[in-house]
Specification:
This protein is an all-beta fold. It is 2% helix and 52% strand.
């Protein structure tokens, strides 16, 4: 069973997220030992991994309540979530004993060994508690307050008083500037890491997996520091059987290790995350605040002047095209001090930016189509900052290709689509001249007329451009052919359906014809029907019980001529199933020998024999219609034997017994 600690809403200090697992071969009726540490006067919460239980966690019971009250108190905070809370009363070790059960009746036992360490002492000089002396903060919402992280440990404020301009501060204090520590508990490693050698099966850092052998837990620690040079892994002096360390930017997976040659020795040591707030966050309204911190025990005081200034965000929207560049300048008039820095805090891969020192302007280039964003933060020499959000809508007009079929001595008129451009159109021209056709441009409506003279193939491209640097190109692929120009084109189709299942088949989607041309079914299918519904859909319905290949033909006609296409339909066959009994008593229920799925085997043969080996029925292309007659008389009830020869490529033969009852 996995076990982890959850962060507290307030006064969070030590073990915040812990994953522990054992070497048990199952998750239930097992005993887990959990070790944790917390300073005196602090709260903690630990929860089991609910996925370790087959059902939903229903109850948590403390079967050694007498262990509470001396060094720590334990309580069950949320049974359905599998959570256990504890509070450090004084320096020492307490043990909590808990049975956790789910709604399926499975239970697991957890022993929680909690080491309560002394409270971390307050240690500072009177006027160096808070640095710097002045903090300037800007907010974008003038109706909101500012969240300010004071550089003083969160746990220390429990012994201090905070005043806002002479009034006792009472707007809530939470932890901030969170530091992350990762720990692995190896108490469940075979022999607790002292009877190696061991096999490290897996340890992942940022999805990179490491493995190998190690002699003991000391060798494992050395390897961890070799693989993770920024981790600084050490043995935890306060929590037994624990290695702690880690780099805050890394993501660590579980350590899986085993003792070679020992059955069920695999241990999965989960990554235990501890979050330690290095700062204390207070909430202040817009304006100037003199924050004074007082230690009544030592009569020490220190203060910091905090200025909260509202600087509403600026928002710009720009439209542009891929590979177009430009520049934009931010407004720094809201800054209190002198302009100092400018940076893009949300760089987009679709917009490249160049920022130059002491310059409020930025050069940009659009690289990718779509919605992109740049966030420019301008700060002054007093620490106030103003943000400008620039939303880019980047277009990338694509070349359109239009196929044109026309006869000789003919002309066609087309208008070019300019909807992919957002600017004012200022140019319309031919960018690829034709070879055997003539093109006339209409620069008013952005249309063109193509005139043919002789048969052949031609290509002409025109481009329409706007005043924002965008161009949209349209190419006309021209086929000049008298026959192709006049006749409709019907192309063959193929589709499939399931057994006994009608379906809509779009036979015209790959054809070329015009409004007014007629479509007629020439040859109907041999194993089904084709009908046209009121919406113009062609519906193929296979005959009941049939399967395999079927075809029908249709033609498209106009005043010049017709073209014919063939539609191939494959009806999936039903699985061959022989029913082992029937009762031909004339009641209309189960009156015949039923065999399903024979439609896939047109050459099949069905034979039935009595118990003396005499053939009493023989049929080809069987339709499940034999009602137990032989020579015009009903056979007596009893057991008969059938042979079904499918005559497929594998020469499959099905045989068995069939009962006739009345």
């Amino acid at each position: 069973m996995k076990f982890f600690n959850l962060p507290r809403t307030f006064q969070i200090f030590a073990f915040v997220f812990v994953l522990l697992s054992t070497a048990h071969s199952h998750s239930f009726a097992s005993v887990d030992s959990i070790y944790a540490s917390i300073p005196s006067g602090q709260f903690g919460t630990s929860c089991v991994d609910a996925t370790s239980f087959a059902g939903d966690i229903e109850s948590i019971s403390n079967f050694c309540p007498d262990q509470s009250g001396t060094y720590a108190n334990f309580d069950v905070q949320n049974p359905s979530m599998g959570c256990i809370g504890y509070y450090g009363l004084g320096e020492g070790t307490s043990m909590g004993c808990f049975e956790i059960c789910d709604d399926l009746g499975f239970c697991d036992t957890v022993y929680l060994f909690l080491n309560v360490s002394p409270p971390i002492p307050l240690n500072f000089l009177c006027d160096t508690l808070v640095a710097p002396e002045v903090i300037n903060v800007s907010i974008s919402d003038c109706a909101a307050s500012a969240n300010i992280c004071l550089p003083i440990r969160f746990d220390l404020l429990n012994t201090l008083e905070v005043y806002d301009s002479g009034v006792l501060y009472a707007n809530g204090i939470t932890g901030c500037n969170i530091d992350t520590i990762v720990a692995y508990t190896y108490n469940n490693l075979f022999g607790q890491g002292a009877v190696g050698p061991y096999l490290l099966e897996s340890w992942t850092i940022n999805d990179v997996e490491y493995s190998g052998e190690f002699a003991d837990v000391n060798a494992l620690l050395d390897s961890m520091n070799v693989w993770d040079t920024l981790g600084t892994w050490v043995f935890d002096p306060d929590v037994p059987f624990t290695i702690k360390g880690g780099f805050s930017d890394n993501f660590y997976g579980s350590i899986t290790a085993s003792k070679p040659g020992v059955v069920n020795s695999t241990s999965i040591m989960g990554a235990n995350y501890s979050l330690i707030p290095l700062g204390s966050e207070i909430i202040l309204a817009q304006g100037q605040h003199l924050i004074t911190i007082v230690d009544n025990a030592t009569s020490c005081t220190d203060s910091v002047l905090i200025n909260v200034v509202c600087m509403p965000n600026d928002y710009l929207s720009l439209q542009t095209y891929v590979n177009i560049s430009g520049s934009v300048c931010v407004d720094t008039s809201d800054l209190v001090g002198n302009f100092a820095t400018l940076q893009n805090v949300c760089p987009s891969s679709g917009i490249a930016t160049d920022i130059f020192p002491n310059d409020v302007c930025v050069d940009w280039e659009a690289l990718e189509e779509g919605n992109q964003q740049v966030c420019l933060v301008a700060c002054d020499d007093l620490g106030f900052c103003d943000t400008t959000f620039i939303a880019y809508q980047v277009f990338d007009p694509q070349t359109d290709t239009i196929d044109v079929v026309m006869a000789t001595e003919d002309s066609e008129y087309f208008c070019v689509d300019s909807t992919e451009l957002f600017g004012l159109v200022n140019n319309y021209s031919v960018v690829l001249n034709p070879s055997i056709t003539a093109v006339t441009l209409d620069t008013i409506d952005f249309c063109l007329e193509i005139t043919s003279t002789v048969e052949g193939n031609d290509l002409v491209c025109v481009a329409i451009c706007d005043d924002q640097g965008g161009c949209d190109t349209t190419c006309f692929n021209i086929l000049i052919d008298n026959v192709a120009a006049g006749y409709p084109i019907a192309n063959d189709d193929a589709d499939s359906t399931q057994f006994n299942t009608p379906f809509v088949i779009d036979i015209l989607q790959n054809d070329s014809f015009t409004i007014g041309d007629t479509v007629t079914i020439l040859t109907p299918p041999s194993q089904g029907t084709v009908e046209v519904d009121t919406a113009g859909n062609y519906i193929y319905t296979p005959d009941i019980g049939t399967c395999g290949d079927d075809i029908f033909t249709y033609e498209i006609c106009n005043n010049v001529g017709c073209d014919v296409a063939t539609v191939s339909v494959y009806v999936e066959c039903e699985q061959t199933t022989v029913y082992t009994g029937f009762s031909p008593n004339g009641d209309g229920v189960n009156d015949s020998f039923l065999i399903k799925g024979l439609g896939a085997y047109p050459n099949h043969k069905v034979l039935v024999y009595n118990r003396w080996g005499n053939m009493v029925f023989e049929g080809e292309n069987y339709k499940s219609n034999w009602q137990g007659y032989w020579n015009g008389k009903p056979l007596p009830h009893g057991v008969y034997f059938y042979v079904v020869e499918l005559h497929d490529e594998a020469n499959t033969v099905l045989a068995g017994a069939v009962s006739i009852g009345y």
